[in-house]
Amino acid sequence: MAKITLDNLAHSYLPNPKSEDDFALKELNHVWEDGAAYALLGSSGCGKTTLLNIISGLLQPSRGRILFDDVDVTHAPTAQRSIAQVFQFPVVYDTMSVRDNLAFPLRNRGRDEKYVAERVQEIARMIGMEDMLNRKARGLTADAKQKISLGRGMVRKDVNALLFDEPLTVIDPHMKWELRTQLKKLHHDFGHTMIYVTHDQTEALTFADKVVVMYEGRVVQIGTPDELFERPEHTFVGYFIGSPGMNVIPAKVEGRTAYIDGSSVELARGYGPLDGKVEIGVRPEFARLSQSDGLPVKVRRVEDVGRHKIIRANFFGHDINIIAGEDDPVSADMNRVTFDAKHVNVYANDWRVEGEAA
């Protein structure tokens, strides 16, 4: 296990980067706690895999340092970092049996065969492959091979960190849930530092202690699932986390009031003058459809998804979503909306502004 420090870390794939836009990974300064489980979350091309490959040693950063437990490993090869990495697509030894694939990292480090056998059996049980241990890897399905890759990554207990690069892409949906559960159990039992790259918010939020949200090469927020939901620090976080994501509406903010096309929305905090692009953000869960209260809204359609209803509406020319409970009435004469003031966030140039309490 290791505390991982990212010190002025940045990377460009260009030989002579001239500006910040030339960097695939913008400057990072973060300390990731020893033994914690992190998820790197963001859309394709945001820098997740670049960062993971720098941590693993597969890529040398253009700038800055990476430290494991305060030891500089920036230029140390992967083999010296004592990490295990599982890639997006399965990497297995086709000529070996499942048993020998799982045992390989332990035998390569000279562990005795009794320990190897016990540990392989434990991991095989974890990934649901006990009855396949004697089969050759060749000919197995892609998801079975990926389970072998996951098992081989987890078989060692003495690693500084376990790194997962979208490891469940080829796994069927039911098995994804089972494997995420097993990874959580592994983390609880052994306390490895784990870093899990994904573009799937469900995977990130159910796996990690803290989620690292990346956008255009930059870490825009590190937080617990509750923090990302309640207080998105960047509009991208609000948009990317949640289903549907946060409503983001252009507004003029003065003190404790936001003005949208001349109509006012109450805020729970006060704000001074804000420059640039100003918006309010409110999640659909904190918007309520009404017959008489609030501001006018035009309902376009209602989607009943079982546990709740998603109301798609137009609000002063902007598309917004409202979530109503499964048993909440929704009728044609409900054409106004209210927002819970405590859960209305204010953004200037996409970044959340804290505001002052009353």
Automatic annotation (TrEMBL):
<keyword id="KW-0813">Transport</keyword>
<protein>
    <submittedName>
        <fullName>ABC transporter ATP-binding protein</fullName>
    </submittedName>
</protein>
<keyword id="KW-0547">Nucleotide-binding</keyword>
<dbReference type="InterPro" id="IPR003439">
    <property type="entry name" value="ABC_transporter-like_ATP-bd"/>
</dbReference>
<dbReference type="Pfam" id="PF17912">
    <property type="entry name" value="OB_MalK"/>
</dbReference>
<keyword id="KW-1003">Cell membrane</keyword>
<dbReference type="Pfam" id="PF00005">
    <property type="entry name" value="ABC_tran"/>
</dbReference>
<dbReference type="InterPro" id="IPR003593">
    <property type="entry name" value="AAA+_ATPase"/>
</dbReference>
<keyword id="KW-0472">Membrane</keyword>
<feature type="domain" description="ABC transporter">
    <location>
        <begin position="4"/>
        <end position="241"/>
    </location>
</feature>
<dbReference type="InterPro" id="IPR047641">
    <property type="entry name" value="ABC_transpr_MalK/UgpC-like"/>
</dbReference>
<dbReference type="GO" id="GO:0005524">
    <property type="term" value="F:ATP binding"/>
</dbReference>
<keyword id="KW-0067">ATP-binding</keyword>
<dbReference type="InterPro" id="IPR015853">
    <property type="entry name" value="ABC_transpr_FbpC"/>
</dbReference>
<dbReference type="InterPro" id="IPR040582">
    <property type="entry name" value="OB_MalK-like"/>
</dbReference>
